[in-house]
């Protein structure tokens, strides 16, 4: 890639153990009669595990996914554009799950062959309606017999690892239909999921016992002109918003929040589809529950008459696929949001070490393509660490040295979702007698606006815990960049600003803030993200309520934006005769109409960065804030 890169760092206060963040993995299956029982390179990484492996309890129940090869795969992309692009004969002729299976999935007859095979081993099989995912559930001993595996456990640093030193195998009559098996190998952190979840570090700014209107979700609806639609009676009635999540929440917290926001507060608005967990270790911790609580509260406040459907599993390869597959299977939610993700670096790392099937990025894209074909508007948060993401670094004695660089965020980088980035609203804040912050206009969210104050008096930011929390925001910003995992989608081709970039390296290789760094320009190629942005800075953030975390808090993060956009979609859909569908094919065309564009581009090269990327003057797109912010009233009138 042509980007300037940030290298390894040793800042002791920010050192994080190099651990695996997503429980991803598996291997492509092979035919039983051809393959031997020899190991398959996994030993290279297993040699580095802390402690020897031990056999997984044969009585333990686990879940794996058999992902079948899609049919007519080359047709999938063209059909997404056909149903989501005005002027085509198929425009708005959205697919049902059954039609998707008919055109792209394997037949029920093929699925029944697998079911009969796994039944012989006392394993249950659930076929998703898309005809591609088979969820297999049963005891470890029976999985081992059916797939000729030898499931074991070990630890990588402090995290549990599930693996098989033998490659999964099936009869050739079945394996010829299989793209990959998910869940044979699983990395799953315990209570420290935030290490590779970009949307956790910048959440809480301060506790408060009062509700302030300046932190209410109405700030979003007013500032981006969504309230003009609500005043005309469009409040999300008849709509369902889906939340993809990997932790639980308390419905009473949500009801309490909605009541104080003066919107319908009945818990009957919320339903939960909890998927069986494929691994024993849970991501359902108190701090992770903040994410789900936040998403449900924000979506339900923005669209006060819409229902919320929560899809919950554990955060791993099987859980990520199955939550989306279930949502699209049900086809109840017209809009969907997710606020979780991992660094693209990890997708390459896990793949290269045989702990992630090489097909996983393709599998997720196929699943998300199904949603786009069904007319589901899917929004995924772009991340909260600016253009940067963490990879796996080395160790010097007991100290971990993370690899911190300009890596994209998965799956916000998928071409079949609308990626939501972050901005900072204008505000002034007096830090001390002669120390203040002044953001004069809405800009891309990046902590560099605090650098002059930091340079003037660094000791202020480190003198106590409260100010140290302010220090963390120096390293925060809206996610955005250029993917090395996915190619540039057709809707971004030839759009000015896509695959070119302006950048200022606001962080040194030792993670020290740099004042007035030089502007550099370059080119690259890949899926550019985010697509759109809205206020996400904790300094100009939103309130939420979670009793277990002290009650009322002011929060930020692009994970606020994703459910807000889902709520905005529900509001707009309630005034339409059909779903808006997948936004991107239309919004990139609208952004190039200089007269009628519903977007305000943030294109300045100064005071407008996500700690690396800046605006590109005169161009409708940049990797810091995408196409910019939205005037929802105008989008409603121009979106077909």
UniProtKB/TrEMBL annotation:
Record's Pfam families? Answer: Pro-kuma_activ (PF09286)
**Which part of the chain is the Peptidase S53 domain?**
214-640
Provide this UniProt record's keywords sorted from A to Z. Answer: Calcium, Hydrolase, Metal-binding, Protease, Serine protease, Zymogen
Q: Which domain of life is it from?
A: Bacteria
GO terms, biological process = proteolysis
PROSITE patterns to which the protein is assigned, alphabetical: SEDOLISIN (PS51695)
Q: Which InterPro entries match?
A: Peptidase_S8/S53_dom_sf, S53_propep, Sedolisin_dom, Tripeptidyl-peptidase_I
Q: Where is the signal peptide?
A: none
The species is Lentilactobacillus curieae
Q: Which GO terms describe its molecular function?
A: metal ion binding; serine-type endopeptidase activity; tripeptidyl-peptidase activity
Q: Which coenzymes or cofactors are required?
A: Ca(2+)
What is the protein's given name? Peptidase S53
């Amino acid at each position: 890639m042509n980007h300037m890169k940030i290298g390894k760092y040793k800042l002791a206060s920010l050192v994080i153990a190099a651990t695996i963040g997503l429980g991803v993995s598996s291997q492509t299956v092979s035919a039983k009669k051809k393959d031997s029982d020899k190991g398959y390179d996994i030993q290279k990484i297993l040699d580095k595990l802390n402690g020897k492996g031990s056999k997984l309890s044969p009585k333990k129940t686990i879940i794996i996914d058999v992902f079948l090869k899609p049919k007519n795969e080359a047709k999938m992309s063209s059909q997404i554009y056909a149903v989501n692009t005005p002027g085509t004969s198929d425009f708005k002729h959205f697919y049902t799950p059954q039609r998707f299976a008919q055109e792209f999935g394997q037949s029920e007859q093929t699925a029944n062959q697998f079911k009969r095979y796994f039944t012989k081993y006392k394993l249950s099989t659930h076929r998703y309606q898309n005809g591609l995912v088979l969820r297999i559930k049963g005891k470890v001993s029976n999985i081992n017999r059916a797939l000729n595996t030898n499931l074991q456990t070990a630890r990588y640093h402090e995290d549990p690892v599930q693996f098989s030193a033998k490659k999964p195998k099936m009869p050739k009559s079945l394996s010829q239909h299989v793209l990959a098996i998910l869940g044979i190998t699983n990395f799953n952190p315990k209570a420290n999921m935030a290490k590779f979840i970009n949307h956790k570090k910048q959440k809480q700014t301060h506790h408060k016992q009062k509700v302030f209107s300046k932190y209410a979700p109405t700030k979003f609806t007013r500032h981006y002109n969504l309230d003009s639609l609500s005043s005309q009676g469009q409040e999300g009635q008849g709509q369902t918003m889906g939340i993809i999540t990997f932790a639980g929440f308390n419905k009473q917290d949500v009801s309490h929040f909605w009541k104080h926001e003066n919107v319908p507060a009945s818990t009957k608005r919320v339903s939960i589809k909890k998927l069986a967990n494929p691994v024993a270790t849970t991501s359902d911790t108190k701090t992770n529950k903040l994410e789900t609580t936040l998403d449900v509260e924000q979506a339900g406040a923005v669209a006060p008459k819409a229902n919320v459907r929560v899809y919950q599993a554990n955060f791993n390869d099987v859980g990520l696929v199955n939550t989306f597959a279930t949502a699209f299977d049900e086809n109840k939610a017209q809009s969907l949001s997710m606020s979780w993700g991992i660094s693209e670096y990890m997708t390459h790392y896990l793949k290269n070490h045989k702990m992630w099937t090489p097909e996983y990025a393709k599998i997720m894209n196929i699943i998300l393509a199904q949603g786009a074909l069904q007319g589901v508007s899917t929004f995924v948060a772009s991340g909260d660490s600016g253009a940067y993401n963490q990879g796996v670094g080395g160790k010097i004695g007991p100290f971990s040295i993370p690899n911190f660089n300009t890596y994209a965020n998965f799956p916000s980088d998928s071409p079949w979702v609308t990626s939501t980035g972050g901005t900072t609203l204008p505000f002034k804040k007096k830090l001390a007698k002669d120390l203040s912050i002044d953001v004069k206009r809405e800009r891309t969210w990046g902590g560099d606006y605090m650098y002059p104050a930091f340079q003037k008096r660094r000791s202020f930011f480190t003198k106590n815990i409260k100010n140290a929390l302010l220090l963390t925001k120096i390293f925060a910003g809206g996610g955005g960049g250029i993917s090395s995992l996915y190619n540039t989608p057709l809707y971004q081709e030839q759009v000015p600003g896509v695959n070119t970039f302006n950048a200022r390296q606001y962080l040194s290789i030792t993670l020290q803030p740099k004042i007035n760094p030089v502007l550099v320009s370059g080119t690259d190629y890949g899926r550019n993200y985010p697509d759109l942005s809205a206020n996400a800075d904790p300094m100009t953030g939103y309130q939420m309520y979670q009793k277990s975390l002290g009650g009322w808090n002011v929060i930020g993060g692009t994970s606020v934006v994703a459910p807000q956009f889902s709520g905005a979609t529900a509001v707009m859909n309630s005034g339409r005769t059909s779903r808006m569908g997948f936004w991107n094919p239309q919004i990139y065309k609208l952004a190039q109409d200089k007269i009628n564009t519903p977007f305000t581009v943030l294109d300045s090269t100064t005071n407008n960065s996500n700690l690396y990327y800046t605006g590109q003057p005169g161009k409708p797109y940049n990797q810091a804030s995408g196409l910019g912010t939205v005037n929802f009233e105008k989008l409603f009138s121009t979106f077909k």
